[in-house]
């Protein structure tokens, strides 16, 4: 009996062992599979362990420079320029314009900029308003202000154009990327540049699975890029690396078959060994911050008054524009009077907020200083910034000033904002932001349709 029980226990134990979850039993097998796989493809390493060997870097440099020489796009800022400081200025302007903006869009702006301010000395003499007007439509207006302030700083110090990254970083508005681009392209300093295109190329070359936005990961990308820079043609190589990311190693549809460094690409090698992995899995996708929703009451004020204060042309009416604060979103730019609301608001609430604003800054009080010719709600318009989705409630307010424009000027209170009154022709020719342009186009359409009725 005891031997029978023992036999049954052994059988039961064997059956139980066979019924155990496979995970634990298969762990050594998975490790074996990984070891086998590592013989066929590069093993994914921690980013701190990644580096380009001397031989690997040399192969990448040679392949990229040859490819770039045959495939580079002809762009105005790449044209030969004997004067090295003028070359540096052109690189600076182009790189700032290219931040967050497509190449096709930048080309026309670059031509206009260089026609108006061909050298850093010409730019240093410009006003912020002139710079903003030319920049209108490119967005991220702080870039334009930094260009102007940087030019003034360099010219005021009466020194040569800064030539090294360390010197360039002292100029207001010039960060690591722009400094590296200017120093390497114009002055041949052997330094890297790292932008979104470079991050994507290196992330795929080394199959970097770390968060590309993390500060420690960003520092590692700079170190990896520094290992690749060609010591004899740093500027050409940096442009080649960026060009590859912009035209071949693209975010969603990379052309791996035409990539000059596909042999060195770990992401491509992994994707060929494992169909569940895609080249586009690198760099890792980072969840974007949720867009903020803002609401604004915008009042297009058309004033019927004294012709002498209407800028540009003699007319009996003009549009009131106010200047935004010198710091913050759209700093120093002209717009129609507006008030930021706490949230969705009805017409009565919006008009009350606008009336308070106009009375506070301009004393436009219908009972005392002006008559309302007409006041009509025009509609809503959505304008999207990178991090903000702004809903604008637009209305048209036509006023006739009882004392005329001069009387209005003399009665301004202490809390005034910079303002001007311009006629329709001047307004149409101004360098307005795309958001202001949308509102004005909307109002003009509304007026035409109203007249047609």
Automatic annotation (TrEMBL):
Localization per Swiss-Prot or TrEMBL: Mitochondrion; Nucleus
Keywords: 4Fe-4S, DNA damage, DNA repair, Glycosidase, Hydrolase, Iron, Iron-sulfur, Metal-binding, Mitochondrion, Nucleus
Cofactor: [4Fe-4S] cluster
Group of enzyme by EC: hydrolase
Protein's UniProt keywords contain Nucleotide-binding: no
InterPro entries the UniProt entry points to: DNA_glycosylase, HhH-GPD_domain, HhH_base_excis_C, MIG/MutY, MutY_C, NUDIX_hydrolase-like_dom_sf
GO terms classed as biological process: base-excision repair; mismatch repair
Signal peptide: none
All residue ranges annotated as the HhH-GPD domain in the record: 97-247
GO molecular function: 4 iron, 4 sulfur cluster binding; 8-oxo-7,8-dihydroguanine DNA N-glycosylase activity; adenine/guanine mispair binding; metal ion binding; oxidized purine DNA binding; purine-specific mismatch base pair DNA N-glycosylase activity
Segments of this protein annotated with the region Disordered: 1-42
Compositionally biased intervals (Basic residues): 1-11
Cofactor note (record): Binds 1 [4Fe-4S] cluster.
Residue stretches in coiled coil: none
Substrates-to-products reaction catalysed: Hydrolyzes free adenine bases from 7,8-dihydro-8-oxoguanine:adenine mismatched double-stranded DNA, leaving an apurinic site
E.C. number(s) listed in UniProt: 3.2.2.31
Keyword Glycoprotein: no
Any one Pfam family match given in the protein's UniProt record, by short name: NUDIX_4
Record field: transmembrane: none
Major site of localization recorded for this protein: mitochondrion
Membership in a protein family: Belongs to the Nth/MutY family.
Function: Adenine glycosylase active on G-A mispairs.
Name used for this protein in its record: Adenine DNA glycosylase
Species name: Prunus dulcis (Almond)
Lineage of source species: Eukaryota, Viridiplantae, Streptophyta, Embryophyta, Tracheophyta
